[in-house]
Amino acid sequence: MRTKKEAQDAIRVMGTLFPEAECELNFRNPFELLIAVVLSAQCTDALVNRVTKHLFEKYRDPKAYIAVPLEELQHDIRSIGLFRNKAKNIQSLCYTLLEKHGGNVPQTREELEALAGVGRKTANVVLSVAFGIPAIAVDTHVERVTKRLGICRWKDTVRQVEDTLMKKLEKETWGDAHHRLIFFGRYHCKAQSPRCPNCPLLDRCREGQKRLKKQTTG
DNA sequence: AACTCGGGGCA
DNA sequence: TGCCCAGAGTT
């Protein structure tokens, strides 16, 4: 396990690799963010933005999403994977918002996770980005990168990764850290073919050194 | 813990 | 072409 200082410095270095890391979801209010994050499961932000560009003009509030047949909403987001389930979830979610929250996005984790298609990661994104409530969203990239670098343990659950990052990083940097970990994981420390040879963190990455050794000997 | 959903991206 | 994936729900 790395110290706070080591963890913070490692994540700082990631920022030097992708200084223009600005690929975020497009949204104008908490409701649009919620929809965008639900749509983003298992696909890229760029793909989601391509769809929401038109989607958010046609559907401006929860009432709009449930005013059309399910098939129409499915058709409107069909270029995204899992679109059948996601369309169902969005209509169900909008019903819940109207019935239990006056058409607004709730601001507690319990209420958010009770919505269809909203899990812990999505809830954390909405809490932190839309409402400024401290939370760290751990996706597969964040989990993989922090474990490879030894910031977290291999056997840690998503929940434990969350707790570790909240303890080791200053609250004001959580947002930036999240983006840096995402980009570092997506484009550099990739799941199958991580670019270890020219990685600025190689000297302090046990996993990277292990992989290089295996590559040269095998 | 393991499976399913699924079109896009990428080798 | 075939594999993998910026999750969540179900069993």
TrEMBL record:
The keyword DNA-binding is annotated on this UniProt entry: yes
GO MF annotation terms: 4 iron, 4 sulfur cluster binding; class I DNA-(apurinic or apyrimidinic site) endonuclease activity; DNA binding; DNA N-glycosylase activity; metal ion binding
Transmembrane helix in keyword set: no
Pfam families tied to this protein: HHH, HhH-GPD
One of the GO biological process terms: base-excision repair, AP site formation
Name of the molecule in the record: Endonuclease III
Top-rank EC class of the record's enzyme: lyase
Homology family: Belongs to the Nth/MutY family.
Species of origin: Shouchella lonarensis
Function comment: DNA repair enzyme that has both DNA N-glycosylase activity and AP-lyase activity. The DNA N-glycosylase activity releases various damaged pyrimidines from DNA by cleaving the N-glycosidic bond, leaving an AP (apurinic/apyrimidinic) site. The AP-lyase activity cleaves the phosphodiester bond 3' to the AP site by a beta-elimination, leaving a 3'-terminal unsaturated sugar and a product with a terminal 5'-phosphate.
Binding site for [4Fe-4S] cluster: 189, 196, 199, 205
Entry keyword set: 4Fe-4S, DNA damage, DNA repair, DNA-binding, Endonuclease, Glycosidase, Hydrolase, Iron, Iron-sulfur, Lyase, Metal-binding, Nuclease
Source superkingdom: Bacteria
CDD domains in the cross-refs: ENDO3c (cd00056)
Cross-referenced HAMAP family: Nth (MF_00942)
Xref: InterPro entries: DNA_glycosylase, Endonuclease-III-like_CS2, Endonuclease3_FeS-loop_motif, Endouclease-III_FeS-bd_BS, HhH-GPD_domain, HhH_base_excis_C, HhH_motif, Nth
Boundaries of every HhH-GPD domain copy: 39-187
EC number(s) on file: 4.2.99.18
UniProt catalytic activity: 2'-deoxyribonucleotide-(2'-deoxyribose 5'-phosphate)-2'-deoxyribonucleotide-DNA = a 3'-end 2'-deoxyribonucleotide-(2,3-dehydro-2,3-deoxyribose 5'-phosphate)-DNA + a 5'-end 5'-phospho-2'-deoxyribonucleoside-DNA + H(+)
Required cofactor(s): [4Fe-4S] cluster
Cofactor, free-text remark: Binds 1 [4Fe-4S] cluster.
